[in-house]
Amino acid sequence: KMNVESFNLDHTKVKAPYIRLAGTTQGANGDTIYKYDLRFCQPNKEHMTMPGLHSLEHMMAEFSRNHHSQIVDISPMGCQTGFYLSIINDDSYDNVLSLLDKTLNDVLKATEVPACNEVQCGWAASHSLEGAKDIARKMLDEKDSWTEVM
Amino acid sequence: KMNVESFNLDHTKVKAPYIRLAGTTQGANGDTIYKYDLRFCQPNKEHMTMPGLHSLEHMMAEFSRNHHSQIVDISPMGCQTGFYLSIINDDSYDNVLSLLDKTLNDVLKATEVPACNEVQCGWAASHSLEGAKDIARKMLDEKDSWTEVM
Ligand SMILES: N[C@@H](CCSC[C@H]1O[C@@H](O)[C@H](O)[C@@H]1O)C(=O)O
Ligand SMILES: N[C@@H](CCSC[C@H]1O[C@@H](O)[C@H](O)[C@@H]1O)C(=O)O
Fold first, then answer.
1. Cys-Cys link to B65, which of A3, A22, A65, B129 (CB 3.0-4.6 A)?
2. Which residues of this UniProt protein bind Fe cation (chains A, B) (predicted)?
């Protein structure tokens, strides 16, 4: 068995898009971190291109925190098929569904990518607002299947 | 002021490579998550290419957990200039320096990328062991400057 949770997941069996609790971390004092696998693309069939993914990362990281106060981290997967979302002390799967729904709707309404300049970003040239909106729109179109992982 | 910590960081002032505590999250029960900005590339000057970054993600996520038991997450930045590392209940910056040193040395010794197949990975074709080693080697060569952020 490998250390990384997703290395023990059969990526040929999953049905993207989906939202899956990938694991929890228990702190010694009683806090719990819930890490979700937000899978946008079918593994090994499709993937997000980087400028759209990068813009979506900026918008999800910024906008999600207007809807939820306990977000620890939102980060892309290196395989470009999804994101990991880590939340502390909220065990509600429904809250995560609702959070992603609201956040992606914010993306559709955005008129610019936040912080896409050389002062605030590590690679300001690698952004696409339209690319991010296309990814968000496709994900929202399939909202009914987010809860079906396999 | 923006929600995302790095959007309030002046990326024109930093000197990569560096390791920086980006922020902490306090759980209501007393646990603390420390999130580090592991910056491999100078913002807006250079970036990692995706196959090497993706392989490095697999190796850092897998190997780091052999050296530290309290890792919550290791994930790439969408800007391709670094990674975020989240650790729970270990406030030692020196431990993070040592963890990255050991983990990148494991990368140099690796003979294959763990989990780079269609069962265990979301995009098995997008990997480069040599690309990951080049990134790791360059980072280790500049180890003396990891503690200098600006
Ligand atoms: N995962 C973090 C930050 C997301 S935005 C990250 C961006 O910051 C910048 O340094 C880079 O351009 C990168 O793309 C979070 O959830 O806060
Ligand atoms: N951030 C996580 C996982 C890293 S490996 C992630 C990989 O899992 C797979 O689903 C994808 O191929 C992706 O590239 C962690 O720290 O455990």
1. A3
2. 54, 58, 121
H-run or E-run covering A93? helix A93-109
Q: What is the CATH superfamily name and number for domain A5-143?
A: S-ribosylhomocysteinase (LuxS) (3.30.1360.80)
Q: How far is B78 from chain A (nearest CA, A)?
A: 5
| B10 Cα distance to chain centroid | 19
Element (H, E) at A50: helix A50-64
- What residues does B36 pair with on adjacent strands? B21, B85
B4 Cβ below 6 A of ligand 1: yes
* pLDDT grade for B102, boundaries at 50, 70 and 90: very high
B11–A121 CB contact, under 8 Å? yes
Residue B47 tokens read as 């970036």
Cα–Cα distance, A146 to A140 (Å, whole number): 9
How far apart are alpha carbons A60 and A9 in whole angstroms?
25
What's the pTM? 0.98
User: Is residue A31 less than 8 Å (CB to CB) from chain B?
Assistant: yes
Mutate to test the pocket of ligand 1, among B79, B80, B81, B83 (most ligand atoms within 8 A of CB): B79
Backbone phi and psi for residue A56, each to the nearest 5 degrees, phi listed first:
-65, -40
Q: Which residues of B touch A8 (CB under 8 A)?
A: 120
Closest CA to B111 of B147, B65, B59, B71: B59
Report d(CA A81, CA A142) in Å as an integer. 15
Q: Cβ A31–B27 below 8 Å, yes or no?
A: yes
What is the dotted CATH code of the domain comprising B5-145? 3.30.1360.80
Using CA atoms, how far apart are residues B142 and B16, in angstroms rounded to an integer? Answer: 9
What pLDDT is recorded for position A29? 98
- Joined together, the tokens standing for residue B136 give 């790791």
